[in-house]
Amino acid sequence: MGKKVKWSWTSALIGAASTMAATALLSAKPKDPTFHLVSIDLTSFKLNLTHIEAELILTVHVTNPNMAPIHYSSTTMSIFYEGSLLGAAQVNAGSQPPRSCQLLKLPTRLDGVELAHHAGKFFADVAKREMVLDAKVDIDGTAKVLWWDHRFNVHVDSHVTVDPVFLDVIDQENNSQLEIFLD
Question: How many Å apart are CA 154 and CA 75, to the nearest integer?
Fold first, then answer.
């Protein structure tokens, strides 16, 4: 009735290896990292006759969901209020292991004179205890996959609502976009 099929260990091993390779490729597809602002701490407030400046520490939770460790260069995150550049946060060069989370402490300087240009809106925000800030940063680095370093760029856009009185994070939306260069 039927033809007898000869079973082969070689075919079984090739099939299993192909399945494992396909699974590894699918799980190795690069994923966008995630960023979450945890806290804002005021470290100094300087008031001179001609200048007002606030220094803060932003604590950011960063997740690398990928199978490759990353190394990134230093960069500056721009912070905006009502579309105007309010200040900047320094992101120091560093690295992060694969599939890991870490907290980054970002020293930040805000320009009070720029905030004064939006005094009416700022005082209204203080009264309702909600202030909306936007931030943008581009992070360049390398990811080591097997023996090769691949350059990457992550662009992050953040929309954060904070309490300007107690500096609590009320709400946030963070979008990151990963671009890998295969050269």
Answer: 11
Distance CA 170, CA 100 (A): 25
- 3-class SS of residue 32: coil
β-bridge mates for residue 148, sequence order: 145
Q: What is the mean pLDDT of residues 173-180?
A: 90
Largest CA-CA distance found in the chain, in angstroms, rounded: 100
- What whole-number distance in Å separates Cα of residue 180 and Cα of residue 183? 9
Q: Is the dihedral of CA 140, 71, 61, 168 positive or negative?
A: negative
The tens digit of pLDDT for each residue in 57-96 reads 999 999 999 888 999 999 999 999 999 999 999 999 999 9
Instruction: Answer yes or no: are the C-beta atoms of 141 and 122 closer than 8 Å.
Output: no
Return d(Cα 136, Cα 123) in angstroms, integer: 24
Q: Which residues, in sequence order, are CB contacts of 168 under 8 Å at separation 6+?
A: 40, 162
- Supply the pTM of this predicted model: 0.80
Distance CA(81)–CA(120), nearest Å, equals: 13
